[in-house]
Specification:
Blueprint: E1 4-8, H1 21-31, E2 36-40, H2 48-51, E3 61-64, E4 67-70, H3 72-82, H4 91-121, H5 128-150, H6 162-171, H7 184-195, H8 197-211
Parallel strand pairs: 1-2
Antiparallel strand pairs: 1-3, 3-4
Helix pairs in contact: 1-3, 1-6, 1-8, 4-5, 4-6, 6-7
Length: 217
């Protein structure tokens, strides 16, 4: 059965690939799984029908037969477990790839989201000027650790995996801040992720929703 995911009817980022449905689209493209997309408005996201799928009223959700999932980490893990291409076959390597998925959303993403909140939602607060450098330093601390671990490797643990998909998706949120440019190996890492044909297809599909232009691929 073709799975159906939900996505913003009109994304807050205007189609720059930062909405979390892009992560799920990317995973589905990597494994060659066709999928359908149901677009939802901000109002519809708070209605009972959508809340039955996502109790926190967010996107994306994933439906396949009688299975309904929410949270990108769990959705990508499900896709990776069901289809070849995103997790290694060897048991230890597979476990390490899953660890990197969790690290992306639990360790690296929180300070990045805190930075976005400070820059956008709290920019008018009287304490933002003092707080913002502290938040940026917390992001840099995480990036220093990640950059040291990545070194000159192409991917986090051997071949590209769902761990890299999630990590690149998280790091993309830093592009506008300029912080990522301070870490050349991480910038190159993100660029490698964006260069993957599956990512390009996912990005173009999400962009098409917001611009009305059909994907070229």
């Amino acid at each position: 059965m073709t799975p159906t995911i939900t996505a913003f009817e009109r994304s807050p980022d205007g189609g720059k690939g930062l909405a979390r449905d892009t992560r799920v689209r990317w995973a589905l493209e990597e494994v060659g799984q066709p999928y359908a997309v149901r677009l939802v408005s901000f109002q519809a996201m708070k209605q009972p029908a959508h809340l039955a799928l996502h109790p926190f009223g967010q996107i994306p959700t994933y439906q396949e037969s009688d299975l309904a999932l929410f949270e990108t980490g769990s959705i990508v893990l499900h896709i990776a477990g069901r289809h070849a291409g995103l997790l290694p076959n060897e048991a230890n390597a597979r476990a390490r790839a899953i660890s990197w998925m969790f690290a992306a959303v639990n360790t690296v993403e929180p300070p990045i989201l805190e930075l976005a909140t400070a820059r956008v939602l709290e920019s008018d607060k009287p304490w933002t000027k003092e707080r913002l450098p502290l938040v940026m330093d917390r992001v840099r601390d995480r990036l220093k650790q990640l950059a040291a671990r990545l070194g000159d490797a192409d991917w986090l643990d051997g071949a590209f995996s769902a761990g890299d998909l999630m990590m690149v998706s998280v790091l993309l949120r830093l592009r506008m801040s300029g912080i990522l440019n301070e870490f050349p190996n991480l910038s190159a890492y993100v660029a490698r992720g964006e260069a993957r044909p599956a990512y390009k297809r996912a990005f173009e599909a999400q962009l098409a929703v917001n611009t009305g232009k059909q994907p070229t691929g």
